[in-house]
Amino acid sequence: MTLFEVAASYLRRAEPWSDAVEAMEAASGSDLSVATTGASSPVALSVDELVGDERTEALLRAIRPRMLVMSWRQNPTYTDESFLSRYAYCELLGPTGLVPHAKVSVGLLYLAPGTFYPPHAHPAEEAYHLLAGESEWQAGAGVMTRRSPGDRIEHPSGVYHAMRSGTTPMLALFVWRGDLATPARFTPSGSAV
Question: Where would I find the beta strands (DSSP E) of 41-121?
């Protein structure tokens, strides 16, 4: 099975946004190996340290051998070098993804162990499926809440949110829909929400 087929199967079970599921199913025949030749990552990826659970393991098995050849990148509005050295994402499906799609973006977010992703917001509504790594998540003025692999975390449009990886790397499958063109921005003060 291709990575897209495994991801589509995972989303069929775990994602209520039918437009995202349908987009990934339509891309499920894509051959990732052709699209990623020569790709690299702006951060060191700890592939062997990704720890999921029984809900996420099939998808992790499909991702691990491909991670080092995927096209990883970083948000161009972020300038904090200490954060940038610990964060990257790969858009599998979307406007600039390995498989083009105009209305939905599906990809992977990687945080190195012990990384705080500062409060940020964007117009797109977003859902994360935590695949590997214990982590803490915060939305709006709420408190940080511990999350585990297999959990789904949803952020409405414009709501500031933050996350912190634990002692192992965090890998999450993200789904964006709505305004996909406007990137996320840190809170104006750079402080917690």
Answer: 87-94, 99-100, 104-111, 116-121
